[in-house]
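In the current project phase, we have settled on a layout for protein records. One protein thus recorded is set out beneath this paragraph:
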Amino acid sequence: MINERFGTDFKQADQYFFDQIMEAASADTALQQAARVNPEDKFALVFNNLLETLFMERMDQNEEVFARYMNDPDFQKAIASLLAKQVYKKLTTTPSSPPE
């Protein structure tokens, strides 16, 4: 979908980059809590605050995706929306782990 919409040529390796972002977001306890107590649109606001940090932490892993995300507001908005939906769905449909 992103390749079609933005004329990019992302490959499967790039998908792994996005998968890593989603896994890291899903493991964030504050984000898990936000998913439990907020509707998806409010959750997306919390998610977007974390998303840039997750991209910054992984910029060395995929500079092409990172640069596009940081320099293209439309791309950033589309990625944030897509990933927020996927993480929200994962966090609201997966039973939470018992506290340690």
Notes: The helical segments are 2-6, 12-27, 29-37, 40-57, 63-71, 73-93. The two ends are 39 Å apart (CA to CA). The chain has one domain: 16-93.
